[in-house]
Amino acid sequence: MAIVVQKFGGTSVATPDLVRRAAGRAIRAKQAGNSVAVVVSARGQTTDDLLDLAYEITDRPNPRELDQLVSTGEQISIALVAMAIHAAGHGAISLTGGQVGLVTDAVHTKARIQHVNAQRIHDEFAKGNIVIIAGFQGVDANQNVTTLGRGGSDTTAVALAAALKADVCEIYTDVDGVFTADPRLVPTARKLDEITYEEMLELASLGAGVLHSRAVEFGKKYHIPIHVRSSLTENPGTMIVEEVSRMETITVRGAALVRDLAKVTIRGVPDQPGVAARIFHAIAAANVVVDDIIQNVSRQGAADVSFTVAKDELATAMDTSRQIAQELGAGDVVADDKVSKVSVVGIGMRSHTGVAQRMFKALAEAGVNIQMISTSEIKISCIIDSASADKALRVVHDAFGLGIG
What we know:
Layout: E1 3-8, H1 16-31, E2 35-40, H2 46-57, H3 63-70, H4 72-87, E3 92-95, E4 102-104, E5 113-116, H5 119-126, E6 130-134, E7 137-139, E8 145-147, H6 152-164, E9 168-173, E10 194-196, H7 197-205, H8 213-222, E11 226-230, E12 238-241, E13 254-270, H9 275-285, E14 290-295, E15 302-310, H10 314-328, E16 333-345, H11 355-365, E17 372-376, E18 379-385, H12 389-399
Parallel strand pairs: 1-2, 1-9, 2-6, 3-6, 9-11, 10-12
Antiparallel strand pairs: 4-5, 7-8, 11-12, 13-15, 13-16, 14-15, 16-18, 17-18
Helix pairs in contact: 1-4, 6-8, 7-8, 9-10, 11-12
C-alpha cells in the first residue's frame, strides 16, 4: 500500500465548497488503495487577521504568545476538513502538530523541525483513517507551541512525507504548478513540467512563493518526489525531482522576485581581521537571517558593510547593528526599507557563459540601477530599488526567452 501526503494551502480551503473539494481529493486517494495524510494551512487570510489582532495590542508581540495565537488558524482548518470527510461517510481524525509528534527547536515564529514521530499516524492508518494534520506548527521540548514561519505548512508536509517514507508529496495550491516567473506579474510566464530540487530551492528562497524553501530542502535530502499542482483542476502540475531531461541545455529555468527586503549599512567599520565575524555573530545571535552581504573597498582603514534582511526583521537588525557598531568604534548605521531582489536561476549556468552580462544589460536598458550583486553556481541576484521591481522581473524574464511563444 502506497503512502500519499497531500497539502492544501489556505486558498484551497477558504470556503466550505473548497473544504469539501479538498476532502474529496483525500477520499479518492484513499479509495485508490493509499494511506493518506493531509496537511492543511489556515484558511484564506486567517493568519494575517490573527497577526493584525496581535499588533493592535502591541507593536512588539511576545514571540511565544504570537505562536500560541497564530497556530489556532490551522486547528480550525483541520477540524473542518475532518468533518467534511466524516460527512462523506469516511473515517478521519484531525491532529495538531504537537499531537502528531512534530518537535522543533525553541525559536518562536521561525522554528526548525528537529524530529517527527510518525507512529501516531501509522496507528491511525491501521484504523483506516485519513489523518488531517495542522501545518506550520509543532512543539518544542517543553511542549510550547512553535510555528515554522510563513509558508511553513509546505515544510510540515514534506517533513511528514520523509518520516512516513511516502511515495509522493502533493502540494495543492491556487496555481497550476511552478512557472518561469510569477504569472501574476509576468503574463507570459510558462508552466514547467519538471524542475530539479536545486533549481526549485533557489527559486523558492528567491521569492517564488509557490513552495517554501525548507520544504524543498527536506525533499532533496530524503529524495521525496514533490508534485506541485492546482487544487481546482485535475491537470498534472510540476514535478520536483533529482534530475530533469535536457538539464544542462537550458541556461536559465526561471526568474524570481523578493519584495519585502531592507538594506542595513554600517559605516566606518574598522578594516581589520575578525571584524566581519563579530558583526555577523551578533546578528546571528539575535536570530536575524541575513541574505546578501557586501563590503566596499577600504579607505583610510575603514569600510562600509551592507547586508539585506527581511523587512519584518529590520528593527531587530538595526538595534543589533547599532550596538555592535558602538562596540567596534564604527560610524552610524543607516537603513533602506525600499529594496527588492530580482534573480535568475538555472543549472545550465554551470556550463554556459554570458548569463550575467545578459541580465545586467537587460536591467541597464530598462533604466534599473543595481545596488548589490550576489551569485552562486546556478543563480545571479541583484538588489534594486523596490519601485523598479516589477519592471525588472519582466525584463530579465524576457531577456532569457522564458515566456510563452
